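Lab channel / #folding
Pinned by the channel admin:
"Please post every new chain as: sequence first, then the structure tokens as a reply. Keep commentary short and put observations after the output so the thread stays searchable."

First post following the new format, from NK:
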Amino acid sequence: MPGFNFMTPVQLSRLIATPEAPVLLDLRTEEDFALDPHLLPCSLRARHEEVRTLAERFGAAPFDIEGITCSHPGKMCSIDAFIDDFGLHTPALDRLALVVRAADTDRHDLAPQAAGLLALSAGLSRQSRDDLAQLDAGMALCDALYRWARDGVDEGHDWPAGRRE
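Reply from TO:
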């Protein structure tokens, strides 16, 4: 199942030239563009050096880049910044953030699930060279981790006998 930020070529083709069309940026280098100088309809051609000003123009927010708001503040990680910056604190998201932070900062003592998340993430990254396929798999993993953090945290291995409600 595609993630929330993924669309198939067929879905994209239905949106091109409509008000719902996403902004498509062609950031290929001059050399790559010269090899195939075609643009998708309604796409914008820009130099990759212009991304920051394009982001500001469209109200986009960069993240996970050193020196910006949504990055690694101190011993925290990007998910902590997102939750803080957008006021998204809930018990489930805070629990999920702890596991992600522990895996992302290699401090597995913070959450016993961290080593498993790191192992699964590393395995997913080696299953496909396609970034979008990796993202799809990673989104499924994140969705499952969120569901655990929201309503499965008390479930033990001996379920249903060990389930605490």
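NK: Residues 9-58 form one domain.
TO: also worth noting, The helical segments are 9-15, 30-35, 51-58, 78-85, 91-104, 114-125, 131-151.
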